Prior knowledge:
Mean pLDDT: 86
Number of helices: 14
Strand content: 5-15%
Number of strands: 6
Strand order of the largest sheet: 1-2
Largest sheet: 2 strands, antiparallel
Structural class: mainly alpha
Distance between the termini: 107 Å
Shape: elongated
Low-confidence stretches: 21-26
Amino acid sequence: MMSKKNKLSKNEIYLTSSVFGFLLGLLFFIFFSPNYYLSEDPVELNIKSGSTFSSVLDSLQNKGIIRNKTFVNIAAFLLGADKNIKAGKYIIPNGLSYIDLITLLTKGSPNRQKLITIPEGIWQHKLAELLRKELNLDSAKIMKLSYDRDFLFSMGITAKTAEGYLLPDTYFLFEETNEKEILRKLKSEMDKIFEADSVIQALSKTRFNKHQILTLASIIEGESNIIDEFKIIAGVYHNRLKRGMLLQADPTIQYLKRNSKNYNRVLYKDLEIKSPYNTYIYAGLPPSPINNPGRDAVLAAIFPEENNYLYLVADGTGGHKFSETLSEHNKNVQEYRRWRSAQK
């Protein structure tokens, strides 16, 4: 039988109930009351595939959608939702409670992402066609935007085209994206390469600017599919440029023939095409990149191998032979021609 000493007095019961009621009301206020952000427009939140819940909270706070990560973390824990956030693009309405926000991120219908690989060295019209097939975008609009001066200027491109400034890679891209968003995305990824301290320091010691590096990188990309050769090839072209020699790069001729069926085959008559992109006639780099180079080619152009090579020719196995003298180069050319004749 409970003694009188163990019984709660009426005042104690009222106090306990008040404290419990206050805590319950506080929790209700924290988790269920609306939270407003300052932006007049709905805020967009992109959650990449594989993102941690902690990184999602950081994004929510950085965008001003939430003020306190701890409370949202608690709400997600109570709902068992911290491991069930769906990747995608969300439009976050203003005034959502923490509970409603968690519900949206776990049970909502975000725009889906699609894994897309953009091959290195892709020509702009091929890129536009790939994006049309993969994301149902307007390829004609992509090409028009690629030469639109106002749009290019808005992205920080002073060249006449976006070709060369868009980084090929494998991306998770939102299926509901538009032509401008995708071009800005690819341009932003290319910019990140040039933001590295090592790259900034390297460029400060060279006479090449970003546009010239991308142009050289596009030629390197067009020369070989073997990444291990990129820096060697970059060294060859840096050496030729220093000496004022013609680059004589076949990829620039293939660029001029890109709309023909046999663009890969460079004939003697093609070397006479009158164009500033013809590096067999005009000295120095062509006016602009001839494709969209990948990360490895760009870094090779910035950090070339220090060598004495001035010439390169295909070796028939997918790679190249390099030489320092014209006589040695001519021997390598003859060997390649004999190999090619044997294949026929």
